[in-house]
Write a structure and sequence with these properties.
579 residues; alpha+beta; seven-stranded mixed β-sheet; 10 strands; 8% strand
Length: 579
């Protein structure tokens, strides 16, 4: 399982600690759950600000908030109380941070202390919250836009009845004006925002912010159209192909305009009316189990597994019917590579009503190589559990494992085929989904549809990686080889070797391209040549053309790996004809 974390840290601004032993209070909004030690007025103020950010950004980007992964916000009254949950460095020391945003595919946490919250904290929270919001759209996005749009919205602020975002970030402008910018031809195809060198990462973030700002806010309306075209094209094409299709020979002109834009003295940014939002719900005393589970997830995001384990066990002891404690223990077991233990806790979490799709995926995995693998119809159970996980949270990684399971499943159902057709509509750029859909269709007897879908996946600008491409080519080969062999056999029975060669040529275009298929076709071609020479030899022997027969026999006898029975056959025929 992919355990990749995205953690954002920011510098702690020390202030006077506010002594407070306030109890935890909680509220649940349509988009997140909050636990707070602040008084109700302060907590409601924070929620109004964050709610306005969510509504403004999601409205601008046309996002479906119903698809957001769960988010828990934890507000500590004092930095002293927050310190045990701050990120632990590899050397065991505690990071000097004011807050953290731990973001995972199925859950996220924001945590901070009220007495150390500052403007930099706010920017980083809104940057990462933009990634959280944009996670509802799982279509492929270029790295520069993903980080650039997050930096644009990191400047979000409310002033009276207006909100603003896209304001200039002076540190980015200064870095780019110093000549640090990467040429667009290289920058636009970078696959990731993180580099081995910190200065390269900082440069990428600055250029991502500036180029996104340039396309969205420059005076030329065509730039907005270029941005939309780039994002749409990138869904189904590689980065280099997208750059060529969108900018083509005009890229140097765009680069010149962009450099001038960075050097401008004044910057336009977006000012919008406040979005009407309901008042935050009233806070209630937080159930002890909820507090323990939330702090457990917080500790896990801060890389403090023992503290997370303690909170998880307390949560289970307080309420054995709640899923949170078991989910934490499942994640911790996965981190320790104890897959059977992780599956048992995941199963306990699912039985107790967990809606975390990762718990379903871990449980599904146990039907492949874990303690459930020997159960009757384990392969079918695995597929069904994966599909349940995807219904909770449709992510590409889940679909990849579902495809693997369906390829191995002997008898998929028509419902499985419909499930994948919906997935392809949701992720039209995912060619591995097409391979899986083709495999299911073929097993269901829809052979023409399967071959057509596989052909689309194997088009020239396919997004399959080399291993996936070889698999798809070999799969198509296995489907087509029986038909090819039948056509070859028919031509050979008629001694029509020209027709047989035409068959091979036609199928080489359809099934060649992988090492395995190329080797198979070479063997088929070699066998065809052998059969044609043997037929010539037999005809010459029958017609008593001994010299010519001897010449063909010599050709046959010099072939490498000629079967022993074929050598005996040639010697016998030559002997019968008097050599």
């Amino acid at each position: 399982m992919n355990m990749r974390w995205v953690l954002c840290l920011f510098v702690l601004m020390c202030g006077q600690a506010v002594a407070s032993d306030a109890p935890w209070r909680t509220a649940t909004t349509p988009n997140y759950q909050i636990l707070s030690q602040l008084n109700d007025r302060e907590t409601a103020g924070w929620m109004r600000d964050f709610d306005q950010y969510i509504l403004s950004v999601s409205g601008t980007l046309k996002m479906d908030l119903r698809a957001l992964p769960p988010l828990t916000v934890v507000l500590f009254a004092r930095d002293k109380d927050y310190t045990p949950y701050k990120l632990q460095r590899p050397d065991g020391t505690t990071a000097n941070v004011a807050g953290q945003f731990a973001r995972r595919s199925t859950w996220s946490t924001i945590s901070m202390a009220s007495d150390s919250f500052d403007e930099q904290t706010r920017r980083v929270i809104f940057h990462e919250a933009t990634h959280w919001l944009m996670s509802v759209d799982q279509s492929s996005q270029p790295a520069w836009f993903s980080e650039g749009i997050a930096e644009l919205f990191s400047t979000f602020e409310r002033r009276g009845e207006k909100v603003a975002w896209g304001k200039p970030i002076n540190s980015h402008i200064g870095l780019l004006r110093s000549g640090a910018a990467e040429p667009l031809a290289q920058f636009l195809v970078e696959p990731d925002a993180l580099f081995d060198r910190e200065d390269h990462t900082s440069r990428f973030y600055a250029e991502a912010w500036a180029f996104t700002h340039f396309l969205m806010f420059s005076k030329d309306q065509n730039h907005r159209l270029l941005l939309l075209k780039f994002l749409e094209t990138f869904r189904t094409h590689s980065a280099p192909a997208t750059v060529n299709a969108v900018f083509g020979p005009g890229l140097p002109d765009i680069e010149h305009e962009f450099r001038n834009y960075v050097d401008q003295r004044s910057w336009t940014y977006m000012v919008q009316p406040v979005v009407a939002a309901p008042e935050p719900p009233a806070l209630q005393p937080a159930p002890p189990e909820l507090v323990e589970a939330s702090l457990g997830f917080l500790a896990m995001g801060a890389r403090r597994p023992e503290l997370a384990r303690q909170h998880a066990q307390k949560a289970i002891d307080l309420d054995a019917t709640a899923p949170g404690g078991h989910a934490i223990l499942a994640y911790l077991a996965l981190d320790d590579h104890h897959t059977d233990q992780a599956a048992k806790h995941a199963e306990a979490a699912v039985q107790r009503g967990s809606k975390d799709s990762d718990m379903f995926m871990v449980l599904g995995d146990s039907y492949t190589f874990g303690h459930n693998a020997m159960k009757p119809d384990a392969a079918r159970a695995r597929v069904s559990i994966y599909e349940n996980a995807i219904n909770l949270n449709p992510r590409r990684s889940e679909y990849e494992r579902l495809i693997d399971a369906l390829i191995e499943l002997e008898k998929p159902s028509e419902e499985d085929a419909k499930f994948l057709s919906v997935a392809i509509r949701a992720f039209p750029d995912d060619d591995w989904l097409r391979v899986g859909s083709a495999a299911v269709d073929y097993k269901l007897g829809h052979n023409d549809a399967a071959l057509a879908t596989l052909g689309t996946a194997l088009r020239q600008d396919t997004k399959l990686d080399p291993q996936q491409r070889n698999f798809a080519i070999n799969l198509r080969g296995r489907w087509l080889i029986p038909t090819m062999n039948a056509e070859l056999s028919d031509a050979m029975n008629k001694r029509d070797f020209s027709a047989a060669r035409a068959v091979l040529s036609r199928y080489r275009e359809r099934i060649g391209g992988s090492p395995a298929m190329d080797t198979f076709l070479q063997d088929a071609d070699s066998n065809l040549q052998l059969s044609e020479l043997v037929a010539q030899f037999d005809a010459l022997v029958r017609n008593k053309k001994k010299v010519q027969a001897r010449a063909v026999a010599d050709q046959l006898l010099t072939r490498p790996n000629l079967p022993a029975d074929m050598r005996r056959y040639l010697d016998q025929r030559l002997g019968d004809s008097g050599k």
